[in-house]
Automatic annotation (TrEMBL):
Location of the DNA-binding region in this protein: 39-58
Keywords: DNA-binding, Transcription, Transcription regulation
All copies of domain HTH tetR-type, residue ranges: 16-76
One Pfam family hit: TetR_N
InterPro entries: Homeodomain-like_sf, HTH-type_TetR-like_transc_reg, HTH_TetR
Protein name: TetR/AcrR family transcriptional regulator
Family annotation (SUPFAM superfamilies): Homeodomain-like
Protein origin, superkingdom: Bacteria
Record field: transmembrane: none
Length: 215
């Protein structure tokens, strides 16, 4: 049993390493030549994998570029579902976001990796990637709305609340990206982001008034 567990763990690590290598290669190639001028076959060759491996890991060329973001599509919904009794959805999401700031999580725009900035640039100049991010945003809102509606039974208000919460979260992430683009130090951005998170989620909380209560 131990050997099998170790083997599965090794396979998972190798798979993660391969995915990371494909992503790095894809971001570099697309940044140099433009997203539309790089084929999946070229990405595969540069990453020393088969074309089928790229598709198996990411599904599409767009998926390769934005996969690190999309891995976090369910973060807000998870924060709400796992929150403590008596804790509001706003408090749960604020707590999760502050933890991500503390961990310098790249998914919220706190990354020292230059490729993260390349990805933001690619998204801004490539319609298929921008469209993919719109779908990502909509999915994140719906997942959060589903989690809220499970407790309240009211999907309409759940969607309203989810849109406000995701909007607040995204505004903070955009601020982090913009400051990174102008060259502000990562540690300074993170420190300011923590204060901004308290302010932004506090504003949302005033409107939602502790919605929804959890027994």
């Amino acid at each position: 049993m131990t050997c099998m567990t170790e083997e599965l763990g090794l396979r998972a690590r190798k798979k993660k390493q391969t995915a990371a290598r494909i992503w790095r290669v894809a971001v570099d190639l697309c940044s140099e030549r433009g997203f539309d001028h790089v084929s999946v076959a070229e990405i595969a060759e540069a990453a020393e994998v088969s074309k089928m491996t790229v598709f198996n890991y990411f599904g599409t060329k767009e998926g390769v570029i934005v996969s690190p973001m999309e891995e976090h599509v369910g973060d807000p919904a998870r924060a709400v579902r796992e929150r403590q009794p008596g804790e509001s959805a706003v408090a749960a999401m604020r707590g999760q976001f502050l933890e991500q700031i503390s961990g310098r999580d790249p998914s919220i725009g706190l990354s020292g990796d230059p490729r993260a900035l390349k990805v933001r640039q690619l998204i801004s100049e490539t319609p298929p990637l921008a469209h993919r991010m719109v779908i990502f945003h909509m999915s994140s809102v719906q997942l959060l709305a589903d989690a809220l509606a499970e407790e309240t039974g009211d999907m309409l208000l759940a969607r309203v609340a989810a849109s406000q919460l995701i909007g607040a979260r995204n505004a903070l992430i955009v601020e982090n990206h913009q400051r990174t683009l102008v060259g502000d130090p990562l540690e300074e951005i993170a420190e300011d982001c923590a204060a901004l998170a308290e302010r932004v989620f506090g504003q949302v909380e005033k409107g939602l008034q502790g919605y929804p209560g959890k027994n």
